[in-house]
């Protein structure tokens, strides 16, 4: 199976630069995963496709304002850092731009309260930076940091909270679980009143989400790993629904990858925390998930491979072509798809 099998031509003007208001006003393409039949509506009407007893699994990770700019103390060069993973109280793995101006032992000042020194350059080009700070690190980050928007979004985000889901809870992501951006608290309450059961898992999204597949043969692609946690309550809700043959509907590919990583052959998930590097592509047999709410993904990405596994490559590419013809908005701030 080759990367080029998942290519489609996307006009640049369809890459959403800003979120729609209100959140639920985005468009929704509904795809029958077996027949390939499509319907077109708005996201607020997702309630028409859900029913009592369905379990909606959401990822409650919270995006760090992980994009910070530091001034090199010896040269005055300004370098962009994106924090990826906290290693201990002071040290973080990060990516830097431009890398040639951020070498081992270079020191940086980010604010009066925050400075840092690069202590290691990794083989993949990522850096380990050791921070020195006065006060509480995340409070400082809130002041100096910006949201680490994907590289295809070039517009300035006016409201930082629009790159957070309304149910974001646990800090740790370098990118938002964007399928969840379409929900409001009011819509979630409405779904609960209908008898839809809402539960939460946590997967901290890494920037590897945006890393392109570079190998022609997709089986040679190495996935990034991400940390997830499934609380006891969520595992019990999912497993009870599985036993009673009720639908498990994941909101976003991150929730999907979480439950599929933790599921046994019968689709029952194990509670607890672990790392996952699961790669889902056509031929994969889903164990836990039945349906998926997701956004429209990049050509040749691991995410379009994942949604193709849930339906078929042909159905997905046909639906994407329809979406392009109808001028749907694509990617993180774009419209949504319900694969049922």
Keywords for this structure?
Thrombin, subunit H; QueA-like; six-stranded antiparallel β-barrel; nine-stranded mixed beta sheet; 6 helices; 28% strand
Describe the 3D structure.
- The protein has two domains: 3-63 and 159-339, QueA-like, CATH 3.40.1780; 67-144, Beta Barrel (Thrombin, subunit H), CATH 2.40.10.
- With 340 residues, it is α/β, with parallel strands linked by helices.
- α5 (302-310) crosses α6.
- Helices cover 18% and strands 28% of the residues.
- The longest helix has 13 residues, at 313-325.
- It is built from six helices and 17 strands.
- The mean pLDDT is 95.
- The chain starts with 26 loop residues before the first strand and ends with a strand.
- The protein has a nine-stranded mixed beta sheet with strand order 2-1-17-16-14-3-12-13-15.
- What percent strand? 25-35%
Placed side by side, the strands forming the largest sheet appear as: 2-1-17-16-14-3-12-13-15
Identify the CATH class of the largest domain.
Answer: Alpha Beta
Distance between the termini: 25 Å
CATH superfamily of the largest domain: QueA-like
The parts where pLDDT drops under 50 for at least 5 residues are none
Number of helices: 6
Taking all Cα atoms into account, the compactness measure Rg is 20 Å
Characterize the largest beta sheet: strand count, sense, and whether it forms a barrel.
9 strands, mixed
H and E string:
EEEEEEEEEEHEHEEHEHEEHHE
In total, how many beta strands?
17
- Any idea what the CATH architecture of the largest domain is? 3-Layer(aba) Sandwich
Number of domains: 2
User: What is the average per-residue confidence, as pLDDT, rounded to a whole number?
Assistant: 95
The percentage helix is: 10-25%
Question: What is the general shape?
Answer: globular
Would you give the CATH topology of the largest domain? QueA-like
């Amino acid at each position: 199976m080759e990367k080029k099998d998942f290519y489609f031509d996307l006009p640049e003007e369809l890459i959403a630069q800003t979120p729609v208001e209100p959140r639920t006003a985005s468009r929704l393409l509904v795809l029958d995963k077996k027949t390939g039949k499509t319907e077109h509506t708005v996201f607020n009407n997702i309630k028409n496709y859900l029913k009592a007893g369905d379990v909606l699994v959401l990822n409650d990770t919270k995006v760090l304002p992980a994009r910070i700019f530091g001034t090199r103390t010896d040269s005055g060069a300004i370098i962009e850092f994106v924090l990826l993973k906290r290693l201990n109280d002071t040290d973080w793995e990060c990516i830097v731009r431009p890398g040639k101006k951020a070498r081992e032992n270079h020191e940086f000042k980010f604010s009066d309260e925050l400075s840092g020194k690069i202590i290691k350059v990794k083989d993949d080009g990522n850096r380990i930076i050791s921070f020195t700070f006065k006060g509480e690190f995340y409070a400082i980050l809130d002041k100096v940091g910006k949201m680490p928007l994907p590289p295809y979004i070039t517009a300035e985000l006016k409201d930082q909270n629009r790159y957070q889901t309304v149910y974001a809870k646990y800090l740790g992501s370098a990118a938002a679980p964007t399928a969840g951006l379409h929900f409001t608290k009011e819509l979630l309450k409405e779904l609960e009143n209908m008898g839809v059961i809402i539960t939460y898992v946590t997967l901290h999204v890494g920037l590897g989400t945006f890393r392109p597949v570079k190998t022609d043969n997709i089986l040679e692609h190495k996935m990034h790993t991400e940390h997830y946690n499934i609380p006891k309550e969520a595992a019990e809700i999912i497993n009870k629904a599985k036993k009673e043959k009720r639908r498990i509907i994941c909101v976003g590919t991150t929730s999907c990858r979480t439950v599929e990583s933790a599921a046994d052959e019968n689709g029952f998930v194990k509670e607890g925390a672990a790392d996952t590097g699961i790669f889902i592509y056509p031929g994969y047999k889903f164990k836990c998930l039945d349906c998926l709410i997701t956004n429209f993904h990049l050509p040749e990405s691991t995410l379009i491979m994942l949604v193709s596994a849930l339906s078929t490559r042909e159905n997905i590419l046909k639906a994407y072509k329809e979406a392009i013809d109808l001028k749907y908005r694509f990617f993180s701030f774009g419209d949504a798809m319900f694969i049922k």
